[in-house]
Each structure stands twice: as structure tokens, then as C-alpha cells.
Amino acid sequence: MLMKNWDQKKIGSAIARGLLTAVFLVAAGMKLAALPFEVAGFERFGYPLGFMYVIGALQLIGAVMLWSRRFIGLGAMLLAVLMVGAAGCHLHAGDPIMMTLPALVLFIMLAGLAYAFRSELLALAPRFLLGRRLADY
């Protein structure tokens, strides 16, 4: 029974990471290719064109990290932070609340994934910041 539950968790994680990877690879590609609607969006938000490339590169790095052992949680955190920023940009620009919905849904998925891989995050954190060892968790 324990092995069956573990297999379900592993399969569920792979499916979630696969969906998120597909979303962020497409999003990164559109930014790095400087598609006209992406350029217009960043101009509307008041950001320089170079910032669009930085966000695209971070999305690409985050998507790759979702499949890198010991960095899945960190990749999910990186992408979750980007989604908070995306939702904030839409709200600040006065876009309808529905425009923030995709970023918020992705944030929830990424936060869940980061939580599922929290042991990786704790292993990366310096001990003096944690105040205790990873084995104490």
C-alpha cells in the first residue's frame, strides 16, 4: 500500500511538472521571440524591452529547474514569484480581475509543488538562517 501511494505521488508530481513546464516554455519562448503582443504588454506596463527578455529567461530557467533533481522546489518558488509579479502588474495596470486569474492559478499550482518539495528548499537554506538542522524536521 505504501508503495502504491508513493507511485501516485510521483506520477502526480510528474504530471503537474509537465503541465507547468509546457506553460512556461511557451511563455518564455514568446517573450524571447519578442512576439508583438508580448512587446506591447511590457510597454503598456511601462517596462523596458530588456526586462521582457529577463522575465523570459527566468521562466525558461524555472521550467528547466522543475526537472532538475534537488532544484524542483527552487524552480517552483522562482516561477511562483514571477506569477505574483505578473498578477501585480495586471492589477496595477487596472486590468480586470479576470486577467490575473491565469497567474493566480499557476501561482497556486507552483506553491503546492514548492511545498511538496520543501525538503529540497530546506536543504538549500543555510543552517544559520534555519536555526536547526534539516534532520529536525
Write structural notes for this entry.
By secondary structure, the protein is mainly α. It has one domain (17-136). The protein is built from 7 helices and no strands. The protein has helices at 2-32, 36-45, 49-65, 72-92, 101-116, 118-124, 127-130. The protein is elongated and about 50 Å long. The two termini are 24 Å apart. The model has no long low-confidence stretch (mean pLDDT 89).
Describe the SSE topology.
Elements: H1 2-32, H2 36-45, H3 49-65, H4 72-92, H5 101-116, H6 118-124, H7 127-130
Helix pairs in contact: 1-3, 1-5, 3-4, 4-5
Strand content: under 5%
Q: Average pLDDT value?
A: 89
User: For the terminal residues, how far apart are their CA atoms?
Assistant: 24 Å
- Helix content percent band: over 70%
Segments where pLDDT lies below 50 for 5+ residues? none
Biggest sheet: strands, sense, closure?
none
Would you tell me the structural class of the helices and strands? mainly alpha
Q: Give the helices and strands as they follow along the chain.
A: HHHHHHH
Strand tally: 0
List the total number of helices: 7
Question: How many individual domains?
Answer: 1
How would you describe the shape? Answer: elongated
Cα-atom Rg, whole angstroms? 17 Å
